């Protein structure tokens, strides 16, 4: 029991040895026969124990230690995050709180600041100002925290760069060694990932010969190999054929069903609406809305409609400016 709890616990009064006190105790026992017979302790009007059943000394109830409520640590918390490139503000003091165990979409038009934000969250780009916590660990506070964060996350960045002169199998083996996984465990996980992602037949081909979809899938396998708590994906479905996209989607849904978290950026609203539980809308370096899919969509008929309203997008009128376009010559 903690020291404070012991100090707060009720203590029995010291026994008094003189005869008068003994007589008082006897008289009290005679005056309350029901208590003696039933074995119930007497209480005063406030419910406090005033005596014991029969002639037994009062028992000391254990100190009550209130139950500690479960603390739900968000997968990601961002506070006042800024990033400038020269005179250009890419991210303008954003705040984010992304819940754990969810499929989360960070959506916005091209140039909104999505990639810059994910790069700062995952430790790839130092912010000018602000704080980033992943699974409760401060990403930029000190090197030890960065190491801890990177052990807990997987990243599939935009413009994925891979070791192209390695085969797919060799790439996963190398990734496993970097992550400190035992060789046998790396081999087992690599075999399973290659099979599930439909890369088993190409595992001995060099990555340089992989298609765009195959590169995305081997990159995803490398990001998942160490079983991270949070997976960050920057435009994971960009340039991917429908078959590969469906395979990637199935793996990600299975991953989040296990309680892990996926955070991915996209500008394809239909995809986000079909996959995500939680959405943050970003435009011009600022967060315009964040919350559950239903909260962000509101009364709009679709996420696309809500998104266009939030970012203030207006379709350009091309009626006269392109009057020369089209027609049969």
How would you describe this structure in keywords?
single chain; 329 residues; alpha/beta; Rossmann fold; six-stranded mixed beta sheet; four-stranded antiparallel beta sheet; 36% helix; disordered N terminus
CATH architecture: 3-Layer(aba) Sandwich
Oligomer: single chain
- The shape is globular
Low-confidence stretches: 1-18, 28-57
Secondary structure tally, helices: 12
Q: How helical, in percent, are the residues?
A: 25-40%
- CATH fourth-tier homologous superfamily: P-loop containing nucleotide triphosphate hydrolases
Q: Give the topology string: H per helix, E per strand.
A: HHHEEEHEEHEHHHEHEHEEHH
At the third CATH level, what is the topology name?
Rossmann fold
How would you classify the helix and strand content by structural class?
alpha/beta
Kindly state the number of beta strands. Answer: 10
Number of domains: 1
What does this structure look like?
The chain has one domain (76-311): Rossmann fold. The chain has helices at residues 3-8, 19-31, 33-38, 114-121, 143-152, 168-178, 183-196, 212-224, 242-257, 269-275, 293-297, 303-311, and strands at 76-85, 88-98, 103-107, 129-134, 137-138, 153-156, 230-234, 261-266, 278-283, 286-292. With 329 residues, the chain is an alpha/beta fold. Helix 6 packs across helix 7 (183-196). A hairpin with a 2-residue loop joins strand 9 (278-283) and strand 10 (286-292).
